[in-house]
Amino acid sequence: MIPVQLSTAISNSESINWKRYNGEEEEDEERYKYEEEEDFIEVEYRPTAVPITREILQKIQRELGLIQLCWPEKDIRKEVYLLTLPNSYCSVNDKERLLLLYAENFRRQFHTKYKDRKPILLACENECGVQKFVSTSIRRSTLPYPELYTWQGCAKFVSDYISYEPLGKEDLVLVRKT
């Protein structure tokens, strides 16, 4: 039975099946089953085999934001362009490895805590194919005005640079002309 307070709010709704409240639903149950069976065709599910290539694995890795924790040595003598780059572009030193380990740990914790969010970008491959940490994704950017980092500094800035001018008639409400 519907409470009296809700009956006026629900009475205008067309999406409610009133037969449920009157007990008539059981009579029409077989008819609904028959209609549902006509609407659908049974199809056997056959998964298609996709060849796993290096490109597909790299694409999945980028989408998931995975960080590689193994660092194979790459031969940079094969391409002339790579020879022009500094050695730090083509290799990962011990500090960077430790940083990538911390970043992977953080990524796992973030994914465990926020499963519905898009994965964050913490590391990506550079032009040499070496995965490097992206520092701007964790560290906040610095403002050119360090006094604005605290609320006291913000209050001082507002008091120094903004002047208060009271309105002539405080009881009038301004309305925009359209």
UniProtKB/TrEMBL annotation:
Example GO biological process: flagellated sperm motility
InterPro entries, per database record: DRC7/lobo
Domain of life: Eukaryota
GO cellular component terms listed in the entry, alphabetical order: motile cilium
PANTHER family the UniProt entry points to: DYNEIN REGULATORY COMPLEX SUBUNIT 7
Protein name per Swiss-Prot or TrEMBL: Uncharacterized protein
